[in-house]
Specification:
heterodimer; A: Butyryl-Coa Dehydrogenase, subunit A, domain 1; Butyryl-CoA Dehydrogenase, subunit A, domain 2; 3 domains; four-stranded mixed beta sheet; four-stranded antiparallel beta sheet; globular; B: alpha+beta; 3 helices; 4 strands
């Protein structure tokens, strides 16, 4: 097993690192500490730069015009992209572009023409609507939104909670129960235009994140054409599950990136800060915090890269993705917490990014499936059919 | 007319600013008939928080004599929600707010 990066990976990582340090960090000095967007002029300028770097639209498959980047390299890039104040929820403020909703790559040609291609061109935005007030970690049972077929249309009634981006989106993937008694075999995914009568964004849900908010949605007799079913009727759970598993790797990578940046700041700070006539770095209590940080970061990084490597090779990676998400989100929280402690009062002030990372990192242990669910996934993979 | 901060009473500016110091939060300014003129926020880089931001804003908000103030650390999401709420009610932003890229909200009335 070769743990060294290839020459190409090293070059790409160095390029993204330089971009974050030279382009993103200086802009953040003048932004609100909780900002998740750039000035539109800066945004456009930086998108031009990432395009010229050949790294725009990182998650778009090469067949659709994206850069041909393997998942391990993509994970390394995600680690670098998160190394700034807004890095957890707005890595590089989106100037590397996105693929939109990866599930649309499996859509019909008509659906691709209506939704995927406009999204890739930046003309449309989508959102992913899975979680409900009844729960998000167990969609097979928790989904109560119902869709009933009437002729060529489906009538959808229900609600969704914790949905990001729905208020600004042009369409969304909405999961609804189409066969009440079939559990995970009774869920269907619909592509829904947000201007459909009966689609409502009812409220903003305020959380520890001040900028990147979630919303609550309500659907009242929302009529969606049958042609907007994504995949097959009653096969939506597989689409949701695939997305949940796939998403755990970049989610972990973001936490690692922030942890690396926090550790780097602490390593710069403790030799300079003196207490009782000696630098903080001479204190064993501080040294051990730094050592524990390093262990947390390395463990999380290797587990996450292993998950990416398995996914890249087409091997089963559900267990590894769950391990990456679990290890990285918990490690990231510990690292940021220790760094805040080392910085003392400065650590909790909005002058430095720790307080934002601390708040947002806490969400990471819950979002995309809480730690307990990841442990459940891992246990199920370990025990297989013997688990009841 | 109502604003997005309806649970907070309109108060005369002098009264409203009493007890508000360096906190973070959102606010609305209105004329004597309680027509909302401007919705703003005091964020993490605002000198002297709400008091500083409102005092500064009054220099450019002619006719503002009343205010609603909400102290919150979720000032950015709350600010955007207030603007979206106003837009949902009136179909436009408050007269002195600059154009802003916002989402759509259809709150229960």
């Amino acid at each position: 097993m070769n743990l060294e990066l290839t020459e190409e990976q090293n070059l790409i990582v160095a390029m993204v690192r330089r971009f974050v340090r030279e382009e993103i960090l200086p802009l953040e000095l003048n932004l609100d500490p909780d900002a998740d967007t750039l000035d539109p002029k800066d945004q456009a300028r930086l998108i031009e730069k990432t395009q010229s770097m050949g790294l725009y639209g990182l998650d778009i498959p090469p067949d659709y015009g994206g850069p041909d980047i393997d998942l391990v390299t993509r994970t390394l890039i995600a680690v670098e992209m998160a190394q700034h104040r807004a890095g957890l929820y707005a890595p590089c403020y989106g100037v590397f572009g996105g693929a939109g909703l990866a599930q649309l790559f499996e859509a019909t040609e008509a659906q691709k023409a209506a939704y995927l291609y406009p999204t890739l061109r930046g003309e449309k935005r989508g959102f992913f609507g899975l979680s409900e007030a009844s729960g998000g970690s167990d969609p097979a049972r928790a989904i109560q939104t119902k869709a009933e077929r009437v002729g060529d249309h489906w009538i959808i009634n229900g609600s969704k909670l914790w949905i990001s981006g729905a208020d600004r989106a042009d369409f969304g993937l909405i999961f609804a129960r189409t066969s009440p008694d079939k559990g995970r075999g009774g869920v269907t995914c619909f592509i829904v235009d947000t201007d459909t009568p009966g689609f409502h964004v009812r409220r903003v849900v305020h959380t520890l994140r001040s900028a990147h908010y979630a919303t609550e949605l309500q659907f009242e007799d929302m009529s969606v054409p049958h042609s907007n079913v994504l995949g097959e009727v009653n096969k939506g759970f597989a689409i949701a599950n695939d997305r949940l598993t796939r998403q755990r790797i970049p989610y972990a990578a973001g936490c690692i990136g922030v942890a690396i940046k926090a550790q780097e700041m602490a390593l710069d700070y403790v030799p300079q800060r003196e207490t009782f006539g000696a630098p903080l770095s001479s204190r064993q209590a501080i040294q051990w915090m730094l050592v524990d940080n390093e262990l947390d970061i390395k463990q999380a990084l290797w587990v996450t890269l292993e998950a990416a490597s398995k996914a890249q090779q087409g091997l089963p990676y559900r267990k590894e993705a769950a391990m990456a998400k679990l290890v990285a989100t918990e490690a990231g929280g510990r690292v940021v917490d220790r760094c805040m402690q080392m910085f003392g009062g400065l650590g909790v002030a909005k002058d430095l990014p720790f307080e934002r990372w601390f708040r947002e990192m806490r969400i990471r242990r819950i979002g995309e499936g809480p730690s307990e669910v990841q442990r459940h996934v891992i246990a199920r993979e370990l025990l297989g059919s013997s688990l009841r | 007319m109502p604003s997005a901060l309806e649970h907070k009473p309109w108060r005369d500016l002098e009264d409203a600013l009493v007890g508000v110091h360096g906190q973070l939060g959102v606010f609305a300014l209105a004329d004597a008939k309680d027509n909302t003129l401007f919705i703003g926020y005091a964020g993490g880089r605002t000198p002297f928080g709400l008091k500083g931001e409102i005092t500064d804003r009054l220099q450019t908000t002619e006719g503002a004599v009343r205010a609603r103030i909400e102290i919150t650390t979720s000032y950015l999401s709350r600010y955007r929600e207030c603007l979206m709420f106003y837009q949902a009610q009136f179909g436009c932003l408050p007269p002195l707010n600059p154009p802003e890229r916002l989402g759509r909200l259809s709150p229960m009335v």
